[in-house]
Design brief:
This protein is α/β, with parallel strands linked by helices. 28% of the residues lie in helices and 23% in strands. The chain has one domain: Alpha/Beta hydrolase fold, catalytic domain (Rossmann fold, 3-Layer(aba) Sandwich), CATH 3.40.50. Strand 4, helix 3 (84-91) and strand 5 (96-100) form a beta-alpha-beta unit. Pfam families: Chlorophyllase.
Length: 288
């Protein structure tokens, strides 16, 4: 009986700690289609970001520590609300996604301003500190060896601007490519800083980023690179669709392969198996 009482007490203490950290939150698409209901959270110690995460971190981490993606927004802006359906969906499959910009409950509900690329690496610093803090809900639940850096449009340039950070294990460029531009502290000279596999996920000829992404793909020859193209996707792809549409599913194939070691997901990229991805094309190079 004493053991049961102590277990109940520990549960309530853990719950209080977790709830105390989350100052505000919302649920996107009923928490996603994955095994773990996701929330979009404003953390007390990280006010200028949204953490898309499984609501119950400990349960989600039972099958393995949770990989991380840090994310920079289109326009290099301070809100991820245009991307929240993809980011929440990823989180529901057992990931922690930390997006630049404070929590915004509804569209148009905040002031839009620009951000700095270093906010991506600051987010990694934060989650690393949380993982070792015994008072944190993230304590010992985070896989710090498996971190992705992703961004959409101008946010992709921010990804390249901090690409040299050794903690990054993979990169995701959504509707983005630097080509011959200079943006957000990045240019074509930033490409050699990429030191891990990178995927470009673009939206076909009507996506203004596709031509620059093509140039990047041609120029990158020192790390593995994949190029996933939704031919009728446009510059926002499927970010606005329920559960993030096929952009979410393509992202999860990449993340499950690169960060969770699920080799079966590699067929989409290495074998061009697009049977579940109508309207997409794929090419890849430099993979062993």
């Amino acid at each position: 009986m004493k053991k049961i009482f102590l277990t109940i007490c520990l549960f309530f203490v853990t719950t209080m700690i977790s709830v105390a950290q989350v100052e505000d939150s919302k649920i996107v698409d009923n928490g996603g289609s994955g095994d773990y209901k996701a929330i979009a959270a404003k953390e007390a110690t990280l006010p200028n970001y949204v953490v898309y995460r499984p609501e119950n971190l400990e349960v989600a981490a039972e099958e393995g520590l949770l990989p991380v993606m840090v994310f920079a927004n289109g326009g290099c802006s301070n809100t991820s609300i245009s991307h929240e359906r993809v980011l929440s969906e990823i989180a529901s499959h057992g990931y922690i996604v930390i997006a630049i910009g404070a929590l915004q409950k509804t569209p148009g509900g905040g002031e839009n301003s620009s951000t700095e690329a270093t906010m991506l690496t600051d987010a990694i610093d934060w989650v690393a500190d949380q993982n070792k803090d015994k008072e944190s809900a993230y304590y010992n639940n985070v896989d710090l060896d498996d971190i992705a850096s992703g961004g959409q449009s101008c946010g992709g340039a921010q990804v390249l601007a901090v690409a040299s950070d050794p903690r990054i294990e993979t990169y995701m460029m959504f509707n983005s490519g630097i080509g011959d531009m200079s943006m957000a502290g990045a240019d074509r000279e930033s490409l050699p800083d990429v030191h891990a596999p990178i995927v470009y996920i673009v939206g076909g000829p009507s996506d203004v980023a596709t031509s620059n992404a093509e140039l990047d793909y041609e120029r990158i020859d020192h790390v593995p690179v994949a190029f996933a193209n939704l031919m009728e996707g446009g510059h926002m792809g499927t970010f606005g669709e329920e559960y993030g549409g096929s952009f979410s599913r393509m992202s999860l194939k990449w993340l499950d392969w690169q960060l969770k070691g699920q080799d079966g997901s590699s067929d989409v990229f290495l074998e061009g198996d697009l049977s579940d991805f109508s309207g997409w094309t794929m090419k890849a190079k430099s993979f062993q």
